[in-house]
Amino acid sequence: MSEAGVIHDIGYQRYDGPRLGRFAMQQALYVHGLRAAYGLGRSAKAKIFPWLVFGIMLLVAVIVAAVRSTIGEVIFTYTQFADQMSFLIIFFVAIVAPQLVSRDLRSGTLPLYFSRPLRAADYVAAKFAALASAIWLLLGVPQFIMFLGAAFTTKTGFKGVWNEVLDLVPGWGYSLLWAVMFAGIGLLIASFTGKQAFAAGGIVAVFLMTAPIVGVLASLPSTTANSLAGLASPMTLIAGINQWISGDEGTGLDLGRFGPVYAIEAVCLIASCLLLLLARYRKVASL
Amino acid sequence: MSTVAFITARGLFGRRRALLLLPLPILLVGLALLCRMYDVSPDMWGQAVIVALGLAVVLPVVALIVGTGVLGSEVDDGTIVHILTKPLARRDIILAKYAVAASVTTVVSAVPLFLTGVLAGSARLGGALAVAATVGAFAYSALFLLFSLVSRRPVLVGLVYILVWEGLLGNFVSGTKNLAIGQYVIAITDKIAPNGMMDTPVSLTTAIVMSAIFTVAGTVFAINRLGSFSLAGETS
């Protein structure tokens, strides 16, 4: 270390160990994002809102499970649970999405991130996966509790449990659809502003204002417009896909022959959100 | 005091930020126009556009963005220090900011609601909606201004109020409707221009009295809070 020309050697050493590379960075960002979503590793104040939402969801799930095991009446099925809780999911996205991306914009950490071998795509993928997992856990854990309630009180033995599993797995898949859709839209909106307050307001405004459009389109005097009405809002879009795949008519939508259109739009919407996010992070100015 | 109001207004509208407030009102009027062009009976779409979009989304969300924007963003940025160190009474600061928030919310929500009401029925319905939206704007602004002083995350608290208190609980537990500004707005509209699409358990007297209480109590409490305002460090 002490070569000629070095006046003071204060012991700095070069790093010779293995370099973990992009994948490890992506993984680290993902884990950090998922923890930040629930306020883990942060102060009690940061935990209030995510756990408030999670607590309400759990409470509802416990009530549903209890009612089902005592009276035998099914209040919500696994898929209806997600539909009924849509306001809370919107609120959760409005809390978490700005935490994940707006904070980075605001505090100027993005130039630091991107001065590493991390690409914009890695960053977007990690954040998207973190938010989608957080939303999925928000729905999946209460659904699992409902499953436990139903499975332990079943009267038909293992056959009953297996039937519940067959109900639960599509329910989890449905929650995944919610998670992916809401994560894409939420992150895209939040990535445009460094102010968490504006980002949260924007996310809620976008999700809430789409719902009445469906109501208006559904009242137009054209069956095509009525069948396509659900496309206008992410919530009814997801419900429409569920109806198209499972064929149950409980959602109040009238799809007609346009079921596949719903699936196509959902895929296009998620893909375009991700592409726009990539485009957004091609050039990052510190706000 | 007028300088504070001017700076606040510039903070809201400067650098094209005013454009952020436009989509919601435009959507409201646009949907009403669309239905009008297709000659759909207002009975079919009035509920969805006026109540579900206009009164339940546009008015509270605009009030939330503006009401927390006037003070909350200054607390966030730390620029509130500059105002607090000037020789101004805290009361004047709050009143100036409240005046800006309430008037901006009124303009942004009452004008499109008036247009929608005219398209949906009569000028009477439009006028009723405009009056009710003005009352609502004043009450909501006072509440959200207060939220930005009691919490470091006023928007989230405001969203809890809008989504959980007025939205979710209002559907299941009807008792909360007596303490929801949205219901007062509906009650006032329905009294001025009776129509079939609005339905609320709140009476007109309750609506007027409670709106006034929300407005005055919110402002007074906000003044009180700003009087003992302490600048905390970085948020967690």
Secondary structure elements and pairings:
The complex is a heterodimer of chains A (287) and B (236).
Chain A lengths: L20 H17 L6 H27 L7 H7 L1 H22 L2 H5 L5 H33 L4 H34 L5 H23 L4 H6 L5 H13 L12 H22 L7
Chain B lengths: L1 H12 L9 H15 L4 H36 L2 H5 L5 H31 L2 H28 L3 H19 L8 H12 L11 H24 L9
Helix pairs in contact in B: 1-3, 1-5, 2-3, 2-5, 3-5, 3-6, 3-7, 5-6, 5-9, 6-7, 6-8, 6-9, 8-9
Describe the structure.
The complex is a heterodimer of chains A (287) and B (236). Chain A starts with 20 loop residues before the first helix and ends in a 7-residue tail after the last helix. Chain A has one domain. The radius of gyration of chain A is 23 Å and the shape is globular. Chain A has eleven helices and no strands. Helix content of chain A is 73%, strand content 0%. Chain B has one domain (2-227). Chain B has 236 residues and is mainly alpha-helical. Helices cover 77% and strands 0% of the residues of chain B. In chain B, α2 (23-37) packs antiparallel against α3, α3 packs parallel to α6 (123-150) and α3 runs antiparallel to α7 (154-172). The chains are: A mainly alpha (287), B mainly alpha (236). Chain A binds chain B through residues 42-46, 49, 52, 56, 87-88, 90-91, 94-95, 195-198, 200-202, 204-205, 208-209, 211-213, 215-216, 219-221, and chain B through 20, 23-24, 27, 31, 34-35, 38, 40, 44-45, 47-49, 52-53, 56-58, 61, 64-65, 68-69, 72-73, 76, 152-156, 159-160, 162-164, 167-168, 235-236.
